[in-house]
Automatic annotation (TrEMBL):
Protein name: FAD-dependent tricarballylate dehydrogenase TcuA
Keywords: FAD, Flavoprotein, Oxidoreductase
Organism: Entomomonas moraniae
Keyword Oxidoreductase part of the UniProt annotation: yes
Superkingdom as given in the UniProt entry: Bacteria
One GO molecular-function entry: oxidoreductase activity
Matching NCBIfam families: CobZ_N-term (TIGR02485), PRK08274.1 (NF006130)
Listed Pfam families: FAD_binding_2 (PF00890)
Amino acid sequence: MYDVLVIGGGNAALCAAITAQEAGASVLLLEAAPKEWRGGNSQHTRNLRCMHNAPQDVLVEAYPEEEFWQDLLKVTAGKTNETLARLVIHSTESCRTWMKKHGVNFQPPLSGALHVARTNAFFMGGGKALINAYYRSAIALGIKIRYNTKIKELELNDSKFVAAIAEDGTRFEAKACVLAAGGFESNLNWLKEAWGKNEEGEWIADNFVIRGTRFNQGNLLKFMIDQGADIIGDPSQSHCVAVDARAPLYDGGICTRIDCVSLGIVVNKNAQRFYDEGEDFWPKRYAIWGRLVAKQPSQIGFSIIDSKSLGRFMPPVFAGKTANTIRELAVLCDLNPEKLEKTVNGFNQACIKGEFNHTVLDNCHTQDLTPAKTHWATPLDTPPFYAYALRPGITFTYLGLKVEEDSAVRFNNLPSPNLYVAGEMMAGNVLGQGYTAGVGMSIGTTFGRIAGKNAAKAALIKETI
């Protein structure tokens, strides 16, 4: 029997496993995916958001606690547990030292349109390199790993963990357990149930793509909900990004994102704008656009720019539609040409000339236009014009298990003595809605380490008679 069983194979699971092993516990990690797909959604990440009161290695200037908190408060519209959020924020000030110890390297600060040189530390080689580093460290420490192991249920004695049962019937006993198996974003039927139908009677989730891993089916989360574990979060809330409509159904990751939204306009299939494209910096708003597109007819949108925007954003993997006139562009996108011309002309006439600067919240905005564009509003008047079709891309869901600072799973508000949770399975405690770049990895790193520490402590307590 192992001291600690960790169920999951991504960032939070690995942080838990490594921390528990460092605390003196013997650890077995169970990953549902095969080795080549290990790492969950963490393999698709690039960075984590970090608090710092002065320049630190790869982070410039300062990003103090209160600013981090206000950024999180704004994107979640107050749907967050402040105590847990501030716990995450504080943890990020020092976690990189521990990460480096386990082989994670960081690249020099970024600048330009991403606006994250001050707030986010980027992994050298991306999330895949981070995951590989953690697995190397885990193996070197003596952690045992099993791939292709999907857990269907847990054996519980009241709220105490006894064993995990795999789909093939294998039983894994341990003195303590950490659940870090992700949300239910890959479960299309559950997504359809959560999002329901639109006014046209269509299942909203029918046009979704899964930006993240295909292996997060939510089976363990569903089991825990059925067992009466305390839960938190809206099942329809998620990290939902507007991605290229040609993206694959699963595992498209970062490269499917369209990053020119704030530099132009976005219209639906009726050639109508429906939200302020320049509301705030893109890293603070990119994760609202999937949900916005999901609310549009047929869950489709089109990001439209002119040639002035080229070079100001990360170019997409797939080329967009290109035309010398808005009318021609509309035809290529199967949009009504008259309606799109009217939308673009109305937008152009509403633009108030200012000093355009896509690296700051500039004074280029619209007047007497609904919806307004608050920043970076310049006329679309310089051909060629470009259009990128958008669909909602789900990265991870926010419905999860309710926790407090100890990361213990709770039943009727009472903590389990030996069952803990980390990562996407509890991120809804901090993320009730919305997202700001890198905070998912911040949550997973923080609560993974807390869960691993407390699981080891629970497992190593000597029984007394």
